[in-house]
């Protein structure tokens, strides 16, 4: 079966000037190739020529890009070995997230367009160099062939190397012989490469070693390459090669995910031992700021109003960081493997506080004629609608206008007003939301204090009752069983990323969900780090730094409400976490800060807040977010 290189498009008959000199420079050769593609290909010639000149030389999928899926890399991957504790169905998927993912897709598209241009140049050379009038230019065409070998050899190399990692040792030599890159390139340059036979052989090998669910992809690949060869359609051949590499990526992902599922119990069971050894090595090389972690922990021990256990101090300090601390200074560096989980907890905690604030605005703007029962129902409706408005990212600050509109709509409905919008009321609602929907405001701190006071006893109890559990027991109790997704992600060939299987969207008790997730992080963290950092002897420098009150948010009793943080100047140093040094505090009582002055506007705000609290206190149950508060002793802490 002849290859597409054996025949050429009609457009190739267009005369292209060939340099007279027999030894053109490399730059001149590249310029000629660019013009061949631009002038002789179809309408996309200019774009393909640009991609040919600028696209990467390596294919999007290579043995190196898939190396992280090898078993030896999996068992030495600290993030994977930590994350597997928190997800029963953790698996790899192609990494196409965000702007970087879109950039990878574009780079891949450019690569495959460039490869189409490269195949076209082989066809053009094959047709042109054997003309009688070109006999004196043989050296020139040899130079063009060598200069054109940019990407196709790399594609064949990637196919061979990846395939060899997926077949038994007994088949290794067969793969090497059939995918001899030098031989394949010679066949293509001479128009003798049988693409149909190659596609049939690849399909046979792949179906023998891949999962049955990949057979359809294999058939599509085989069909594309065969059609491209029979129709002299270079685009279809390129499409088939792209599908081939995607199939190989899928096969590597299948093997890696199978190994993770098989090894999960062993990986979880060995979590503490592995991480202690790994982190001890990192500490020896000064890659972890031990002093900052010890300072953070000791300051919490000193600042608690009652003498806590070590684990209680860790629980209290972490909760305070999640609720009050700036997002850029979230916990010491020892939590580096839990950053994503802690940020998710922080988003959920702040989201609940922001929902309370939205409820405050609704209560403040509601007329006195609105009954308490109607207002309570309206608040539940508002919380539900606000959740839909802000979405999973819970970016309240970007949705203030929409939240205010929803508040006004509910208020107008409560007051039986038929008008669709009240501009003045909308302005009041937006102003209050702009002022209050951010950390550090009076409204935020009031609700943060109440939420922290309610959660802390539950967290301490949830942690203390499970502190002696093994890592595997913690997963069995705290990680919900989730069915494996029925669909498989589509691979486009850009490396892999670990993907949690997802969380159950039906959360009956929001406090219990927080306790479950929080307790798992804290207990596992304590098992790993207690002997490495927290229970190590503290030097005088660290003890002295904690003689001054901590600049992190409020110290608290385990049985009383938290108090507000002192006025301070936190210090951030490049490459380090929050360090409580050079802290300046005032001598004011550690309670909610009073207004700096009693201006009429501030007095009005204070009166409004008192009215809101008064109306809230008269409601039986004003928020779906505070369910089960009255039956704490009967609810699960997991």
UniProtKB/TrEMBL annotation:
<protein>
    <submittedName>
        <fullName>Tcp11-domain-containing protein</fullName>
    </submittedName>
</protein>
<feature type="region of interest" description="Disordered">
    <location>
        <begin position="588"/>
        <end position="638"/>
    </location>
</feature>
<comment type="similarity">
    <text>Belongs to the TCP11 family.</text>
</comment>
<dbReference type="InterPro" id="IPR008862">
    <property type="entry name" value="Tcp11"/>
</dbReference>
<dbReference type="GO" id="GO:0010737">
    <property type="term" value="P:protein kinase A signaling"/>
</dbReference>
<dbReference type="Pfam" id="PF05794">
    <property type="entry name" value="Tcp11"/>
</dbReference>
<feature type="compositionally biased region" description="Basic and acidic residues">
    <location>
        <begin position="606"/>
        <end position="638"/>
    </location>
</feature>
């Amino acid at each position: 079966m002849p290859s597409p290189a054996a025949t050429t498009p009609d457009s190739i008959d267009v005369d292209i000037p060939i340099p007279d000199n027999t030894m053109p420079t490399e730059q001149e050769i590249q310029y000629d190739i660019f013009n061949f593609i631009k002038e002789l290909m179809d309408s996309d010639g200019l774009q393909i020529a640009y991609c040919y000149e600028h696209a990467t030389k390596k294919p999007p999928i290579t043995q190196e890009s898939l190396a992280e899926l090898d078993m030896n890399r999996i068992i030495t991957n600290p993030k994977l070995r930590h994350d597997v504790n928190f997800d029963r169905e953790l698996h790899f998927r192609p990494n196409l997230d965000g702007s970087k993912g879109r950039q990878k897709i574009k780079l891949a598209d450019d690569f495959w367009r460039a490869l189409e241009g490269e195949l076209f140049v082989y066809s053009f050379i094959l047709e042109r160099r054997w003309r009688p009038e070109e006999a004196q230019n043989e050296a020139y065409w040899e130079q063009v062939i060598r200069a054109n070998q940019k990407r196709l050899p790399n594609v064949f190399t990637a196919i061979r190397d990846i395939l060899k990692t997926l077949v038994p040792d007994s088949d290794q030599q067969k793969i090497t012989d059939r995918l001899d890159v030098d031989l394949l390139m010679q066949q293509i340059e001479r128009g003798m490469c049988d693409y149909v036979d190659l596609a049939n052989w690849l399909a046979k090998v792949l179906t023998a070693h891949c999962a049955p669910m990949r057979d359809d992809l294999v058939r599509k690949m085989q069909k594309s390459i065969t059609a491209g060869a029979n129709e002299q359609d270079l685009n279809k051949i390129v499409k088939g090669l792209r599908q081939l590499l995607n199939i190989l990526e899928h096969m590597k992902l299948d093997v890696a995910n199978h190994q993770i599922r098989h090894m999960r119990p062993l990986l979880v069971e060995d979590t503490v031992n592995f991480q202690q050894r790994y982190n001890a090595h990192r500490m020896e090389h000064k890659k972890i700021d031990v002093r900052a972690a010890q300072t953070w922990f000791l300051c919490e021990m000193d600042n608690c109003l009652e003498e806590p256990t070590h684990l209680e101090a860790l629980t209290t300090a972490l909760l305070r960081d999640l609720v009050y601390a700036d997002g850029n200074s979230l916990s010491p560096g020892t939590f580096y493997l839990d950053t994503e989980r802690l940020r998710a907890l922080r988003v959920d905690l702040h989201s609940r506080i922001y929902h309370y604030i939205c409820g405050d605005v609704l209560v403040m703007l509601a007329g006195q004629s609105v009954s308490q029962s109607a207002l309570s129902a309206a608040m539940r409706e508002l919380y539900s609608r606000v959740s839909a408005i802000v979405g999973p990212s819970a970016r309240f600050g970007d949705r203030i206008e929409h939240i205010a509109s929803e508040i006004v709509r509910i208020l107008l409905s409560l007051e039986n007003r038929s008008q669709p919008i009240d501009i003045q009321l909308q302005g009041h609602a937006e102003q209050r939301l702009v002022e209050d929907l951010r950390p550090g405001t009076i409204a935020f701190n009031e609700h943060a204090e109440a939420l922290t006071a309610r959660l802390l006893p539950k967290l301490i109890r949830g942690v203390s009752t499970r502190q002696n559990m093994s890592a595997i027991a913690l997963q069995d109790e705290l990680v919900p069983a989730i069915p494996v997704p029925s669909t498989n992600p589509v691979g486009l060939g850009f490396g892999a990323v670990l993907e949690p299987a997802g969380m159950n969207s039906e959360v009956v008790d929001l406090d219990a969900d927080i306790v479950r997730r929080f307790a798992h992080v804290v207990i596992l963290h304590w098992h790993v780090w207690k002997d490495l950092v927290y229970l190590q002897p503290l030097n005088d420098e660290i003890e002295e730094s904690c003689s001054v009150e901590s600049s992190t948010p409020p110290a608290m009793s385990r049985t009383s409400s938290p108090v507000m943080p002192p006025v301070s100047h936190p210090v951030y140093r490049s490459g380090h976490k929050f360090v409580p040094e050079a802290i300046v505090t005032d001598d004011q009582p550690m309670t909610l800060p009073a207004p700096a002055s009693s201006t009429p506007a501030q007095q009005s705000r204070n009166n409004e807040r008192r009215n809101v609290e008064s109306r809230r206190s008269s409601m039986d149950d004003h928020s779906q977010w505070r369910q089960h508060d009255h039956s704490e002793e009967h609810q699960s802490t997991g």
